[in-house]
Amino acid sequence: MANNGYAFDVFTLKGERKVQFDWKPGAHLTSVGFDGTGRCVSVTHTKTGLNVRDELAGRARCEVRADDPEFWRATVLADKLLVRADPYRVGFRLHDLGTGKELSRVTADRFTAFRVLAWAKTGSVLAWADSDRPWNGRDVPPTAALDLAALASPTKLPDARVRALEWGNVTLTQGDYTASTTVMGKPVKLAYDAEYDFETIVHGTLVGQKHAVLACTTGLFGYDAQTCARTTNYKPFDAAYQVSPSPDGRHFAAAAHLHPVVSIFRAGVPDPVLFVVPRGSEWVAWTPGGAWFSSEGGTKLAGKLEDRGAGKLPTFVPFDPKLRDADKVKAALK
Predict the structure, then answer these.
(1) Dihedrals φ, ψ of 322, to 5°?
(2) Which of 26, 132, 161, 290 falls 20 to 30 Å from 49 in CA-CA distance?
């Protein structure tokens, strides 16, 4: 079986193609697998739920209804279908693969997975708020902050903004699939073309009058705000869902989707210059070269997960204490 995320082909061991599945508008391929009898099963999600098909027979097997199926993920397990039904809750449901009937479920309390970023309107202070939901289009009052120039938590939370849609005589307008800048009253569309309806623009901001950044489901992109040409393919630690600019327009921070690491970029430079993991009022910051510094409680966060191989849980490996260097971390944004 060959699967590229949008379509798949099923072949015999002799190379004979038995099934060809192509992506269809409104029906997103979620999972492909084989049931307990070896028959190929596809699972797609639509606006109403999950549709399970026997691809070799070319017929539907069952449907699993849902109130909000947009984020549903499913895995075929013999004669069962394992479904993760909510991206913001640790929980799973087990369904019968033939009837779609729910057999059991395991759920847990919601967890804090998001960092809503807001850069202070002056200075070098990056503020954040922990949330169990992604940024919803409104400024969220920050709960903690870090002065990146001093590498210390400020005594008072700053007046901060999540993003900038206006900068001098430039305005950014963002929709789900298109974005444009308006310079001196003249709108120009940013160069972003979505091939599929799930390739959306999640968030955007101006970074000074000359640069715009779009966080999309396909990547994190930088644009010339004057010509609207794409200039930079940024490389965040993980897929970005929210971006926030520094007040001088030189840097911006990108919060990852369901990942604690915040990537900080210099406008126009593809690779991050600094990483920050905020947790409550504690934090740890490190450079791509390995120099790091943290708050007192953030020392427990300073480390990385090391892969121990298949079937084994990763091991947390603390950062090298010899690389703890505030001066090198501060220099990253100069």
Answers:
(1) -70, -20
(2) 132
Pick the CATH number of 2-110 from 2.60.40.10, 2.40.128.630, 3.90.740.10, 3.40.50.1100: 2.40.128.630
With H, G, I as helix, E, B as strand and everything else as coil, classify residue 23.
Answer: coil
Residue range 51-81, pLDDT digits in tens: 888 777 777 788 887 655 455 677 787 788 7
Write down the residue that tokens 């947790």 correspond to.
Answer: 279
Q: Locate the domains of the chain by residue range.
A: 2-110, 114-280
Name the residue among 124, 178, 179, 174 with its Cα closest to residue 146.
Answer: 124
* C-alpha distance from residue 315 to each of 28, 85, 276, 306, 311 (Å): 35, 28, 20, 5, 13
Strand bridging mode 282-286 / 274-279: antiparallel
State the pairing for strand pair 211-216/59-65: unpaired
List the structure tokens of 81: 């279908």
| Alpha carbon distance 157, 180 (integer Å) | 33
- What residues are paired with 293 via a beta bridge? 285
